[in-house]
Amino acid sequence: MGHDHEGQRVSRRRLITGVSTLTLGGLLASPGARAAGTTTPTGADLKALLASAGTSRCALTAAATQGPFYFDADKIRSDIREDRPGVRLRLAIKVQDSERCRPLRDAVVEIWHCDATGLYSGAEAESKSDTSGPPTRGASSGPALFVDIDKSDMADLKPTDDKRYLRGAQVTDHDGVVQFTTIWPGWYPGRTVHIHAMVHAGDQRVLGTQLMFDEALNTEVLSRPPYAGHKGRKVRNRDDGIFHDSMLVRVTRDGDGYLGAIVLSADSDRDGG
User: Fold this and answer.
1) Which CATH architecture is the domain 25-266 placed in?
2) What is the number of alpha carbons within 13 Å of residue 260 lying toward its C-beta?
3) Which of 246, 170, 208, 200 lies closest to 70 in space, CA to CA?
4) What does the CA dihedral 80, 179, 22, 8 come to, rounded to 10 degrees?
5) Rounded to an integer, what distance in angstroms lies between the CA atom of residue 218 and that of residue 227?
6) What b-and-e string marks burial along 6-21, b requiring 16 or more CB atoms within 10 Å of the CB?
7) Which of 38, 143, 204, 242 is deepest in the core (most CB within 10 A)?
8) CB of 188 within 8 A of CB of 42?
9) Predicted TM-score of the model (pTM)
């Protein structure tokens, strides 16, 4: 198992070398209690889930701009839940180079998403008032397959509160894998359920994308507390102007929560390939 970097403050704008995170086997020892008497995934199950998520494919992952609520939270950690209630989601992300189809090791993967009521940490006031969202399906041609995220239409946010829940980063191991423990995301007007992800290779942002979920699972989870009290959801995957099939996370039950896996193919040298 790699070195433990939990709690370190490492800027993603710096070159990070010589570090690694949990291996696939380490996922089984990650935080998060499981319901008694349930079947839990094995290491082989996790590998199979990642394989079914696209390990054998090397097409560039569909990109998306970073959205209005990104900032460098400067938190290297795997469990990003803090005090946020919700259905546990363990998330395995494998990053590979889109040209060579090889694992991208020592890359930094950041994720951030809203809580069960649609709020973002660092921007609670702004996320309460932001109800516009991107264009719905039909008003947009969908995401481009390569986006220069350093020149995207969204600047990094200057945080307006000191909250940092549901934000964190991990460094890929020799298999290109990171893992997070979080909650199933909630929703807010104008968007489907999603998680933002950004990959940094060296000192460059090489991929910004979003992770999404099967709508049958969204319906199942959002009918449970604390999500059920948040009413009025209208935008599903098919209506969302950013949704792309390559953004779908493969999900299986994991005790009283879920385990998700996805493979991201990043243009690590940023030549558009």
Assistant:
1) Sandwich (2.60)
2) 24
3) 208
4) -30
5) 10
6) eeeebebeeebeebbb
7) 242
8) no
9) 0.81
